[in-house]
Write a structure and sequence with these properties.
The structure is a single chain. This protein has about 100 residues and is mainly α. The chain is about 60% helix and about 0% strand. The chain starts with about 25 loop residues before the first helix and ends with a helix.
């Protein structure tokens, strides 16, 4: 029998969920951080703060659209997407006008 030498026949029940540490920011904090990034993104650094707001909001929502969600997380995702879209349009229009003026 291999029951000795550290090999036991009884296994401890293991959790089926993810086993990462819980020392990071919780979902409510991520939702608020995402909301702040989304609002600030309308004024400065749209191309950086927009995607950051989307990521923070998405993580705060638990990476899914169903279930109970916090309102700041959903608002952060929507406003972050608007920020990102506006930044892409602004960059595309600026590059097109600059290239057209050279020739």
């Amino acid at each position: 029998m291999m029951a000795g030498f550290g090999h036991t026949t009884r296994k401890r029940p293991r959790s089926r969920g993810r086993t990462w540490s819980r020392s990071g920011p919780d979902r409510a904090s991520l939702g608020i951080i995402g909301l702040i990034c989304a609002i600030a993104g309308f004024f400065v650094l749209q191309i950086v703060l927009g995607p950051a707001a989307v990521v923070c909001g998405w993580l705060a929502m638990g990476r899914r659209w169903t279930g109970t969600q916090s309102m700041p997380a959903l608002v952060a995702v929507v406003l972050g997407a608007i920020d990102t879209l506006l930044a892409i349009v602004w960059l595309a229009s600026g590059i097109g006008a600059t290239a057209g003026g050279m020739f």
